[in-house]
């Protein structure tokens, strides 16, 4: 271990994330694969906490994931994974040039999170269109209230408008599904090649689980979450991909970062509800105590 790696390993890591966020899941898998100890703080996307001034000040992009490593904040999942990859000698990036070529040929299309989600959103486009408009209105109000964050909110407003438009078009959604079909055909071919070359264990780029597998696993997890598993993981058409997914699901990182999403969100909601109960009990206790004091005063 180099001096730089040793110093990075001693840094305190804290992750700001949302369990079902595509890019948060990529970072979660990387942290678990690297066995990095970290603190976590959930930033609720459904309650728009990424738009709150306290978070925008930490990350002007206003997006999760965000990793605090020592005194440094790192945004963008790939940048975070690169930083995490320096923390010990269990490298996620592959050392084989052939593997790198495979990864970079597929990588641009392994990042289909928003568009894949549009399949689900398109089916409820009226509901989501209303939510998107309300989000823009909230951001515009925040921009007025916090002029020092105007530039960050301007970018977020434009992002919401652009994303909202593409999500509601059927033609765009169909096109993305076709791209996904082609991508998974290429993945199937690569997995068959990897299986023929690596007898004991085979992943996307060879015998080692790498950053390429993280992207693929999160993408497959998203396909599962929107109910399209049977469509894209057809045993007759993609047996190697099914074998790959069954193998990947056994990894602790995938179980915690992808398969454990529902339990993570549920536990977050339970803790949040308990805090409200405790806070309410404290207020009620204070009111009772005040009432007792007032009563004693009048008796005196």
Automatic annotation (TrEMBL):
Query: Domain of life, per the record?
Result: Eukaryota
**CDD domains assigned to the protein according to its UniProt record, in alphabetical order:** GST_N_family
The record's section on Pfam families has: GST_C_2 (PF13410), GST_N_3 (PF13417)
Say if the entry is tagged with keyword Transmembrane: yes
Which chain positions lie within coiled-coil regions? Answer: 139-197
Q: Which Gene3D superfamilies match?
A: 1.20.1050.10, Glutaredoxin
- Ranges where the GST N-terminal domain occurs: 11-92
What are the GO BP annotations of this UniProt entry? mitochondrial fission; mitochondrial fusion; protein targeting to mitochondrion
Indicate the family of this protein: Belongs to the GST superfamily.
What protein am I looking at?
GST N-terminal domain-containing protein
**Species, as recorded:** Biomphalaria glabrata
């Amino acid at each position: 271990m180099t001096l730089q790696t040793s110093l990075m390993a001693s840094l305190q890591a804290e992750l700001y994330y949302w369990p079902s966020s595509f890019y948060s899941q990529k970072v979660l898998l990387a942290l678990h694969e690297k066995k990095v100890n970290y603190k976590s703080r959930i930033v609720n996307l459904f309650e728009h906490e990424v738009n709150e001034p306290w978070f925008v000040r930490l990350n002007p992009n206003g997006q999760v994931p965000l990793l605090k490593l020592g005194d440094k904040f790192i945004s963008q999942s790939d940048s975070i994974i690169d930083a995490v990859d320096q923390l010990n000698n269990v490298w996620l990036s592959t050392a084989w040039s052939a593997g790198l070529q495979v990864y970079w040929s597929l990588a641009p299309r392994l990042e289909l999170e928003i568009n894949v989600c549009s399949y689900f959103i398109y089916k409820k486009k009226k509901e989501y269109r209303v939510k998107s408009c309300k989000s823009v209105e909230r951001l515009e109000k925040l921009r007025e209230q916090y002029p020092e964050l105007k530039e960050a909110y301007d970018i977020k407003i434009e992002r919401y408008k652009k994303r909202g438009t593409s999500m509601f078009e059927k033609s765009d959604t169909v096109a993305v599904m076709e791209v996904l079909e082609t991508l998974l055909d290429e993945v199937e071919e690569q997995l068959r090649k990897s299986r023929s070359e690596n007898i004991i264990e085979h992943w996307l780029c060879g015998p080692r689980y790498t950053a390429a597998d993280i992207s693929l696993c999160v993408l497959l997890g998203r396909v599962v979450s929107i109910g399209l598993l049977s469509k894209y993981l057809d045993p007759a058409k993609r047996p190697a991909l099914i074998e790959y997914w069954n193998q990947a699901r056994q990894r602790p990182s995938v179980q915690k970062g992808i398969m454990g999403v529902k339990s993570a969100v549920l536990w977050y909601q339970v803790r949040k509800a308990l805090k409200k109960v405790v806070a309410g009990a404290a207020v009620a206790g204070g009111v009772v105590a005040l009432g007792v004091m007032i009563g004693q005063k009048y008796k005196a």
